[in-house]
Amino acid sequence: MTDEAHMSKKVLIVDDSSIVRMQVGRLLTDEGFIVVEAIDGVDATEKLAASPDAKLIICDITMPRMSGLEFLSTIRQNGSPPVPIVMLTTEGRPEMIQKAKALGAKGWLVKPFKPDHLLSVVKKLTSAV
Amino acid sequence: VPDPLSQIHRLLRACVEESVQELFASYGQPIAPLATTEPLLSAGESVASTIGFTHATVSGSLTVIGSTRLMRVLLAGTGVELASFTSLSDAAGELNNMLLGRTKNKLCRFGLALELGTPTTFAGIDLRMAQPESRSLSSGWSAFDTRGDRFFVRLDVLVPSAVREHPPHLEEIPSEAALAEGEGLLFDD
Q1: For strand B41-54 and strand B115-116, is the pairing parallel, antiparallel, or unpaired?
Q2: B39 min Cα distance to partner chain A (Å)
Q3: Which of A22, A111, A121 sits opposite B186 (nearest CB)?
Q4: Of the ranges A17-31, A57-71, B73-87, which one carries the lowest mean pLDDT score?
Q5: Which of A42, B52, B129, B137 could be bridged to B117 by S-S, CB 3.0 to 4.6 A?
Q6: Max Cα–Cα distance, chain B, nearest Å
């Protein structure tokens, strides 16, 4: 069911898997979010520049060309708007989670994700913006 | 005292097989190991995916093969339609990614923090795999039955010669446990 409070809030989904982008995208559009997709960190940097009104970024870690952690580091260094970022990955190692936290990530979810859990995280982080 | 080298191989194989069962269970799809695996044939339209992994102690690759029907069954509950070759191949790659990711998270507890590559995928009709002439711990297929469909997993493991000469004894370190699949954390400011 569409939640009008989330209408027009834009979320950037960064994952090299089209399946994951489809799964997350469908979940969020059904809730009224506007979804922008990027296939890796390089693409995400360009998409974020074109969509500075994004309220949240959901980002994978292992991707071609530019990983999720490299993307985090890049956008923090280049003065991009302070959009909250939550990592969505198969990775669950504590040191990787700490690296992402140190680079400014707001959260970490391990795939396969639970739809209700992901939605609650997205709603919480976009409400805080 | 178990041989440390065979301990590495056995640990990887056990983690992979456990991960297969857990991953399919997370999709609500029952799966059971098959004792007899001849012929190694994924009948009908099938997809395969290989991902390499590396670590100072061990490297190798994980390959999975299953029917496109199975891929569609696994993703049926997510609302995603696998209508094209690209989406089917991508589904096989992501399935392997989640399988190897789960395996990696289990191995963390033993100090083996694998680095993973990105998936390479293949598709075809009646994919038939060559059976190794001899079975070994370092290379081999595991076959599974999932509601009449076959699902195949091949694990290839290479332990560098320097490590083979002085293999580490792997012990479980609970504090190194990874965040579990499906779980998450929100960080405080």
Answers
A1: antiparallel
A2: 31
A3: A121
A4: B73-87
A5: B52
A6: 57
For residue B2, the surrounding DSSP H or E stretch is: none
Render pLDDT for A52-101 as a digit per residue (tens, 0 to 9): 899 999 999 999 999 999 999 999 888 777 899 999 999 888 889 999 99
Q: How far is B33 from chain A (nearest CA, A)?
A: 22
For residues A103 and A121, what is the distance between their CA atoms, to the nearest angstrom? 19
- Say yes or no: A2 contacts chain B, CB-CB below 8 A: no
Alpha-carbon distance of A73 to A103, in angstroms, equals: 6
Is B185 in the A-facing interface, judged by CB distances under 8 Å? yes
Q: What is the ipTM of this complex?
A: 0.82
- Cα–Cα separations (whole angstroms), residue A20 to A23, A33, A121, B166: 5, 16, 17, 41
Q: Quick count: other Cβ atoms within 10 Å of Cβ B85? A: 13
DSSP assignments along B65-105, one per residue: EEEHHHHHHHHGGGT----SHHHHHHHHHHHHHHHHHHHHH
On whether the pTM is more than 0.90, the answer is: no
Instruction: Name the maximum alpha-carbon separation found in chain A.
Output: 38
| Chain mean position to CA B77 | 22
Do B44 and B115 form a contact (C-beta atoms < 8 A)?
no
Report helix angle B68-75 to B85-108, nearest 10: 70
Phi/psi at A14 (5° precision): -115, 110
Tell me how far apart the alpha carbons of residues B107 and B11 are, in angstroms, rounded to a whole number: 8
Is residue B166 over pLDDT 90?
no
CA-nearest residue to B97 within chain A is: A90
Does the CB of A121 have a partner CB in chain B at under 8 Å? Answer: yes
DSSP bridge partners of A57: A12, A85
